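Model it.
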Amino acid sequence: MSWEKFGIRRTLKDEIGGEVIGPLGFCVREILLPHRVCPQPLSEKNRGDYTWGVLVKYGVDTLTAVSELSKAVRAPVSYAGLKDAISVSSQYAAVRADLKDKVMGRKWGFIPKGKVWAPLSHDHLWGNLFHVQVTGYRRLSPLDAFLDGTPFPNFFGPQRFGLRPPYTHELGAQILRGEEPYELEGMEPSLRRKVRELAVQALQSYLFNLILKDRIDRGLGLKVLERGDLVAPLNVFGLPAYSEISVSEGGRLKPNQALLLPVPGAGVKGPGLDLAARALKDLGVELPHWVRGWYREALMIPLSPAYSVTKKALYLSFELHKAQYASVLLHELIGGCSEIPRVQDASCPSGT
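Modeled.
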């Protein structure tokens, strides 16, 4: 897989080597605000119209698991974030029904934990805790950057675009050209609408990657600000306060600031939009007014980083804020052009 196909570029000169084999070698636990690591309780009152619980899945994407759960219980299901398909992941979900017993699918299970009054949304999400097994590694020196708070570029990862052609951002371009991708045929209407939305957002994500890659290609340090860059203070949770965006006069990024770049679309300003416009022209696409843009952190720093080594493998653990991709961080550390994680066997182990 060519990471540069998605506008992703490594910044580290050295690499660990090796590979991450999923789903078992790539484990994800969701963290909700203020810092509830799944499965910590969401409410002590245990009252409400929604049954909250833990959705555990193995080798399947969140949208598929949620869709199958919703069909099984015949009720709407809400969630906070999307988790990697090639992983063992646990995340929160809220079902608008009174559930007492666990619900099992072929590659997922929902375990009821209590009641809440409202559904879940992306606004509840803080980030994710990752436990990763790296086999066949060659050296540990690149871990210095992982451990000492070095910032890494916050690219959208390959999961945003798919691992096989046609890639999701290419489908997004087709949709905006008025074409109907055959890959969407046969989907139920609600899933079809969601996939169309995600495909257009994937195209916007690709444009963001090009903007961020351009900064790196021009030799800008990841903490260097240009005149006209957008910055925002960090709130008490360490997340950008998007309501307080300001324009920088240049200089260095402060420890309590986030550098933001636009994800092209209606309603956003900032550096790099001219580059995105040229890329869209090459694709024969225009972003209509109903495609809203947003802002995204340009940098990510792994939090609570740790590692251990055995004869079998290197084990990494770390936390990332929401909308930050562990696969991008691991690509920086491991190097190469392989899939991260690489799927070996997505069949669910017996007894799970």
